[in-house]
Batch of 2 targets.
Target 1
Amino acid sequence: MTIQENVSLKTYNTFGIDAKAKLYADVQSLSSLKTILKSKNKDALFVLGGGSNMLLTKDIDALVLHLNLRGISIIEENEDYAVVEAKAGENWHEFVLWCLENNLGGIENLSLIPGNIGTAPIQNIGAYGVELKDVFESCTAINISNQNIRTFTNSECRFDYRESVFKQELKGQFIITSVRLKLTKKNHKINIEYGAIKNELQSIGIDNPGIKDVSKAVIKIRESKLPNPKEIGNSGSFFKNPVISKSDFEKLKINFPNVPHYIVSDNDVKVPAGWLIETAGFKGKRFNDYGVHTKQALVLVNYGNAKGRDIHELAILIQKTILRLFNINIETEVNII
Ligand code: EPU
């Protein structure tokens, strides 16, 4: 494995930020990953997957390990289910398409999410009524300190809304090397409760959709709202949707009677951050080479050569404004590096 010096990461992060790696290695096998972890101090390493959930605000003064472990295989199956294993470096959307071609159902609602399969569990990717945790069987991960391989079951990952143990207690301690999902071979559970999917399917005249139809509808919705990172740099939703108490929600409704919301529990209400940002007047705002997407206020964008620092400052301005106007804290979903 060759180690290169002073490598631009612009094409390795979906925000398209031109930060530099002091050292860079393309890691294609588990054995080379183990060797390098053994020989290096943990602080001198930076692990990069699909680069789809990060904002680089500075150069990386470390050895960037670009995880490129590849391979997809069916591990076990019966008449109803197949357990599919994909190595961490497989592109998420290409994996979804592979599953659709093999008539495996469960992740069609997660079509077109950027990033790699190895990073999908870290933030429990989710869209249109489905989350990774709904089909997740297990993952294997290497302990950075002692290079032992450990398997994490679904419950051990402690998945929650855009959360897992890998973002909390075990942050920075493990590198996920492969993921197993349990997918249906027949009687697919078609999930079109999310309003926009139903409408999209109706508009193309499909009453009895299969998994490929659902995927097509999701792709169409995403393409209409979310910028394609190959054309405009972005990391999807920059913020999480905040959960507030019922009493705070009642107060909010006095001034904003039409605020969209979802009831999470008896005491909690989720408010779309996109609505808060749009109502605060940021939607479509452009500052030089960066700004807030025109069609989805939750997405910050790089129109060309923006600096990560500038986008971070915009994010902080948005957070402060939302706090002042609505008394709500919105947390970033993207990792700020
Ligand atoms: N809204 C606005 N203005 C906007 C954007 C949204 O008012 O600019 C309102 C909409 O009118 C709607 C509500 O917010 O009432 C929800 O909007 P949408 O259905 O687009 O979903 P979201 O809450 O903005 C979440 C996920 C997305 C995921 C969609 C669909 C988070 C942080 N984001 O967005 O995930 O694709 O639901 O399931 O939960 C991602 O994580 O990168 C991502 C794109």
Note: Helices lie at 30-39, 92-101, 195-203, 211-225, 246-255, 273-279, 308-326.
Target 2
Amino acid sequence: MNREIAKVGELLNRARRVLFITGAGVSAESQIPTFRGATAAFADGMTEDGMPFEEALGADTFREHPALSWKYLARLELSIRGKLPNAAHKVMAALQTPRRDIFIATQNIDELHQRAGSRTVFELHGNLRRIICTRCDYGVHVETYEALAKLPRCPQCDATLRPDVVLYGETLPVDVLDAFQQEQATGFDLVFSVGTTSLFFYVVEPVMAAARRGVPVVEINPETTPISHLADFRFAAPAGPTLQDLISSFPGAG
Ligand code: NAD
Ligand code: ZN
């Protein structure tokens, strides 16, 4: 067995509180395009409406032209429709035991961690399947957008509805950040960064904090990222097979 796998397997086996920071790469093996994959569908990153994807999904565009934003939100929904958790999601869920708490801070909006059975998931960028009212407290969970109008309106107050996701230019949900912050204050004894380009400070900071405290950091990503130099263990490989190797490396893991 690979020595690095054995070492991280040993750390995992002993750990009581493990944090997984995850990004689009974790869902890539569920055939959901990563952000780069999604924008590659547009020539020069421009949508056919003549604006970059990020702008179409921006808070300003949503406010001024909600139907335009909905068009591209619906495409995101189409990219996650019917997709199932893969080995990476399943291993993270299987690692939860009465002796070991697993915390997942994800940038993904596809809900696949919960569908795999993970219980503590901080959805930093929200959830595309939750639809909320821009004015009142109305909210609903939908399996797909098929039954929604192109510009859905609130059944209670007729205002525009929106997916409960963080649009470009918006701040992260305060309640989610608070809950994540509390667990960070208690600390972790092992931190993973899996399938994320680590471009946002809120996914970089927990890794830096772990490194400062001498908590082992593991990165799983075929490509190097801004946090790669902080990782004590780096697996330049896909998430699913790597996590499967890790969980198979120690007895009684599941
Ligand atoms: P990203 O698309 O910027 O980067 C994906 C990362 O995953 C890259 O570093 C890539 O090297 C790595 N990767 C690709 N395949 C992998 C695999 N099989 N195993 C492990 N790693 C793999 O994603 P990001 O860093 O999460 O940030 C992009 C933004 O796009 C986020 O804001 C996120 O909310 C959003 N997004 C979400 C989804 C989703 O919900 N599934 C999909 C696309 C984009
Ligand atoms: Zn309403």
Note: The longest strand covers residues 126-133.
